[in-house]
Specification:
256 residues; Glycerol-3-phosphate (1)-acyltransferase; two-stranded antiparallel ribbon; 17% strand
């Protein structure tokens, strides 16, 4: 049985397609609304993790509502509280991020590609809030970034990493990069596998139109302890996490 995380808003084909400048403009306003005070408080030294958590919860809820996304969550009982994880999920859409905030309901930050840190105001707010910038083209920089992410885990804030590295253009699960898995092994933190399906119907990778009323199915799997894996066995850990996510995706999305 799937549990509902937001009111039923209908399937994507039951509502009109809304031009992206309407929905995405609202999203930009919502993002700016939390970014400005976050930047100001970050500069003054008065910003706290709790304030960031509250703002991110409110921001993600607004974005989900604006896009009319219905979230169905399975496996929430598998999510222990008061523990920080390396959260790993497949990546279909920019809407994965607000959907994950709403579905998981835990303190969460993202390891995000450097391009997002070029956006004025938003980039400063992301850094102040504890988001981690990842340069995928620079291995040395990427390793340093993951080390920074490890320090976030010590603060009981979970870190989300998309092991595919980027959004899937088709929704099909792509190959996994190993950097986040090395982080989990070194930090000794459990990996929380999460499968997401349906956000691609709201806004696919590279899409310019938001479809209101899409349904996002989120399945939370049991945490995987990397303690039994060493760097030499990292491929086995990758396979275990991939299998945990893949089993909850439609058959046509499982193959490379």
């Amino acid at each position: 049985m799937r549990g509902l995380c937001s009111p039923a808003l209908g399937r994507a084909n039951e509502v009109p397609v809304v031009p992206s400048f309407d929905v995405l403009a609202q999203a930009a306003v919502s993002t700016l609304k939390i970014s400005v005070p976050t930047v100001i408080q970050g500069a003054s030294g008065t910003l706290t993790a709790e304030v960031c958590n509250q703002r991110l919860e409110s921001w993600s809820r607004e974005l989900v509502q604006q896009a009319g996304i219905r979230i169905e969550v399975t496996g929430r009982e598998r999510l222990p509280r008061n523990e920080a994880f390396v959260v790993m999920s497949n990546h279909q859409s920019h809407y994965d991020i607000p959907v994950l905030f709403q579905a998981l309901g835990i303190p969460l930050r993202m390891v995000a590609k450097k391009e997002l840190f070029r956006i004025p105001v938003m980039s400063q707010a992301m850094r102040a809030a504890g988001f981690v910038e990842l340069d995928r083209t620079n291995r040395t920089s990427a390793i340093r970034t993951l080390s920074e992410a490890r320090s976030r885990l010590d603060q009981a804030i979970s870190i989300w990493i998309a092991p595919e590295g980027t959004r899937s253009k088709t929704g099909r699960l792509s190959s996994f990069k190993k950097g986040g898995f090395h982080l989990a092994v070194q930090a000794g933190m459990r990996i929380l596998p999460v499968a997401i399906d349906g956000t691609r119907f709201a806004l696919p990778a590279g899409g310019l139109t938001v479809t209101r009323g899409a349904t996002a199915h989120v399945t939370i799997e049991s945490p995987i302890d990397p303690a039994q894996y060493s760097n030499a066995k990292i491929s086995a850990l990758v396979s275990a996490v991939r299998a945990a996510i893949e089993q909850h995706l439609p058959a046509e999305l499982r193959a490379d």
